[in-house]
């Protein structure tokens, strides 16, 4: 399964508004997370990775995506929820970090939704390992969706991969 960025960008193109942000929502464990759709290059089914020596524990390894070598991060482990168990619904969200691409292993992609910028709430300050990977929170229906700061998600192991 692979969903190209062009398809994501065209999703609901008529619903654009200055006060709106389009996000891709997905599940890790039973929790809902999201990233800006503009950062998503594609969504693809799981494929085995090639492990890297001395990589951080949440770096599963690398994959070859049409000639580009991409590090794949176990988002469940990165969030402190233990290692992911690969299933048929597991997917890799390939995100564009500007100078490079990265893959995030998640349990399942949920939806692409538009949210009002004014509905974003700051993430609470939580004592942890020293980096804040949450950018903001938004309530969608009965659940709270945590928007990830992609640079913070992959920052810890960037020196290993570059």
Note the run of SSEs as H and E: EHEEEEEHEEEEEHH
Over all CA atoms, what is the radius of gyration? 15 Å
User: How is the largest sheet built, in terms of strand order?
Assistant: 1-4-7-8-6-5
Low-confidence stretches: 1-17, 157-162
What is the β-strand count? Answer: 11
By helix and strand content, what is the structural category?
mainly beta
Protein name: Chemotaxis protein CheW
Organism: Alsobacter metallidurans
InterPro entries: CheW, CheW-like_dom_sf, CheW-lke_dom
Domain CheW-like: 20-159
Keywords:
Chemotaxis protein CheW, CheW, six-stranded mixed sheet, five-stranded mixed sheet, CheW-like_dom_sf, mainly beta, disordered C terminus, 12% helix, OB fold (Dihydrolipoamide Acetyltransferase, E2P), 4 helices, disordered N terminus, 162 residues
What is the topology?
Blueprint lengths: L1 E3 H6 L9 E9 L2 E6 L3 E6 L13 E7 L2 E7 H4 L12 E6 L4 E6 L1 E9 L17 E7 L2 E6 L1 H6 L2 H4 L1
Parallel strand pairs: 3-11, 6-8
Antiparallel strand pairs: 1-4, 2-3, 2-9, 4-7, 5-6, 7-8, 10-11
Quick summary of this structure?
Residues 20-159 form the CheW-like domain. This protein has 4 helices and 11 strands, in the order βαβββββαβββββαα.
